Amino acid sequence: MTTPFAQRPVIILGAGIIGCAAAYQLLQNGFQVTLVGEYLPGDKSILYASAWAGAAWHAAAGLDGDQRYIQAVTHRHLLKMALDDSSSGVCIVKGREYLDQVPGKNSSAWGKTVLKNFRTLKAGEYPSTFATAWEYDCLVVDPTLHMPWIGAKVEALGGKFVRQKVSSLGDLYNMYPESSIFINASGWGSRDLTDVLDSKCFPDRGQNVRLRSPVHDTMYFRNGNEYTYIIPRPMSGHLVLGGHNSRDNLSGEPDMDVVRDEIRRAHNLVPDLVPAEPAEEDISYIIGIRPAREGGFRLDSQKIGNRIVLSAYGFAGGGYAFSYGIGDALVKMVQQAEFDNVILPE
Question: Which residues take part in binding FAD (predicted)?
């Protein structure tokens, strides 16, 4: 017997921030959803990058119009969470962005169309070593709070999580033969899925310093020569100092040279906030393997036999900045797939 149309679950491979954001929005639009993943919300493996992100929303440079819109939609969703539910782990803080060069075409200046209280700082309001600087209200996300929160929201809406490692999308087809729409949000796992084998995917190790601090109300970001960020976590009383990445490195041990360099850069950026030599008991380390992809993330739809496979992976360090905007895009893609493939009675 054919499973009724409304009861065919959308199957999502991958339960990181992209998969969970997609599930959350699909469920709110009346779909049934099952997420399948080796790692689930609440897990602490370094291979589960969503648990170890910085994380903050700030406008990224080098994006095309569609990508900017996706990030802007994400900002809208995260802002609502910050205003409506502090347990989401999303907070509004002041942001300061220092630029080593005057912004050119395709810079992050487009953020002024999204961010509240955006202004260009006047000379004397920022260190004279920088070409210019911006201030704005920005959003930070504590993933140690947000991932359990979004996981609980998905389950409350009727979504299901299945802990299962698969070697191919075909494994999912066999597990859920009644389903016709599948979403591949497996991150760099798409490199090894035997029926995907996306050679552009690779693991990109991130390492940050978590610093206990009595002051945690402003995000600082250096855009240019020494990429540096200081992301506050107001709910836990910490600062996250970064950034760093190391391609194809899966080590879970902190690299102390990286630690010293991140502290040095953060201290140079805001010396009154970050001491040159923090007390050992005030620091800990954040390590996560980001799902990167050469040429940027993949977002598309394919018809494979009688199934539709949507791909949404390869966001590297931008998973949270793109998350709920990608979720919105996937809802539209699922709806279009249904429209194109529903067989109506004659």
Answer: 166
317 annotated to a ligand binding site: yes
Tokens 């903050």, located at residue: 56
User: pLDDT, tens digit, for every residue of 187-218?
Assistant: 999 999 999 999 999 999 999 999 999 988 99
Domains and CATH numbers, the chain: 1-55+142-200+294-346 (3.40.50.720)
Q: What is the CA radius of gyration of the chain?
A: 21
Tell me if 93 is assigned to a ligand binding site: no
Report whether 290 belongs to an annotated binding site: yes
Residues of the chain with pLDDT under 50: 1, 345-346
